C-alpha cells in the first residue's frame, strides 16, 4: 500500500463490519468492499439505469454504471494526490448510486411521493439499505457486510430522525461531525463528474448549445483555449477536449485547496478529521462560484428542457402506477418480491409492505420498469 497520510483511513483502524468476519487474505478490507460491490446484482443493474436520458434514447449517453466508474476514476486520482486511501475511495464511488431508482431523479421524486405516508424515499438511504439488507449473496448475513467507513461514505446526507434509526453510521449527523476524507472527496468527485459529463451529453442530445454555454465561465474560458490552440479541430473533438480540461481544472483546484486546508488544520488522525468544524476537502471560493454557475445553467437549460420533462413525466407515471398496483395487491409481485412484502408487512404493517414495494420498484432498470408496466396494465400482455 502506498504511504498514507496520518489522517487517511486504514484497514487496521477500521471500525469494522456489522457482522464479524475473519480478515481477508491477500487483499485489504476496503479492497474486499470494492470487490463485493462490483459482484453485486445492484451494481450490474446500474448499466440500465439512467442519469438524465432514458436508456433507450441512445447508446452513447451515460448511465449510472458509466457515471459510477467515472466518479471512481476521478476520486482515485484525488485520493492518490492527497495520500488518502484509494481502495476505500473507490469502494464508496462505486456504491454511491446503488439505491437509485429507474429514470433518474424523476423516478426518485415519484417514488418519494408514493412513500410520503411511509417514511419517504431517498436514494442515499436506499443505497445503504441495498448494501446492508437487500443484497442476498452470503450464507452468514444479509447484505454485503461492508466496513463502517464504506457505509459512512455511501450515506452522504441524512435527516436527524432517520439518523437515529441507523445506529453507528447515523451518529455523525447527530453529533454534527464530518465523515472521513475519502467520503468527503468522493462526494465532490461525484459533482465534478456529473456536471462535466451532463454538459457533454446535453450537447450530444442537442438540448443545449455552445452559444448558451458561452455565458458559463468555466466552459467559455476552456473552449476559447482549445479553439486558440486547435482552430481546425472538429466540433465533437473540441467538446471532448473542453470537458476533459473542465474535469482537470476542477480536480487540480480541489487537490490544491484541500491540501492547503489539511496543512493548516494538521489533523492528527481520522478522528480529528471527524471532529473538525467543516469539511477539509473543498474547492477554492472561485471554483465553487464557477461550479454553482454551471449547476444553475444545467438545471435551467438541460434538466428543465421540455424534452427531458416529457420523459420525466412519463417516468413518474410509470413509477406511480407500478407502486399503486403492487401496494394494493402484492399477489402481482414476483415470488421473491412478494415474500419480501409479506415479511415486512407482518412485522411493520402497511409501512412495511410499502417499503418492500419501494425496494422492488427502486431496484428496477429503466427497461424492466417499462416492461413491468406493460405486463401489469396492458391486457395484451398475459405474463
Description:
With 383 residues, this protein is mainly α. It folds into 2 domains: 29-307, Hypothetical protein af1432 (Orthogonal Bundle), CATH 1.10.3210; 315-377, no CATH class. It has helices at residues 29-38, 41-45, 64-81, 86-95, 104-114, 123-134, 148-154, 160-164, 171-175, 181-204, 210-213, 217-229, 235-265, 270-275, 285-303, 306-328, 335-348, 350-362, 366-377. The radius of gyration is 22 Å and the shape is globular.
* Average of pLDDT: 93
What profile does the largest beta sheet have? none
Structural class of the helix and strand makeup?
mainly alpha
Distance linking N and C termini? 52 Å
Number of strands: 0
Shape label: globular
> What is the helix tally?
19
Measured as a percent range, the helix fraction is 55-70%
Radius of gyration: 22 Å
Q: Classify the oligomer.
A: single chain
Say what the CATH topology of the largest domain is.
Hypothetical protein af1432
What is the CATH superfamily classification of the largest domain? Hypothetical protein af1432
Stretches where pLDDT falls below 50 for ≥5 residues?
54-60
Order of helices and strands: HHHHHHHHHHHHHHHHHHH
Total number of distinct structural domains: 2
Query: What is the second-level CATH architecture of the largest domain?
Result: Orthogonal Bundle
CATH class of the largest domain: Mainly Alpha
What percent strand? Answer: under 5%
In short:
This protein has 383 residues and is mainly α. The protein has helices spanning 29-38, 41-45, 64-81, 86-95, 104-114, 123-134, 148-154, 160-164, 171-175, 181-204, 210-213, 217-229, 235-265, 270-275, 285-303, 306-328, 335-348, 350-362, 366-377. Helix content is 63%, strand content 0%.
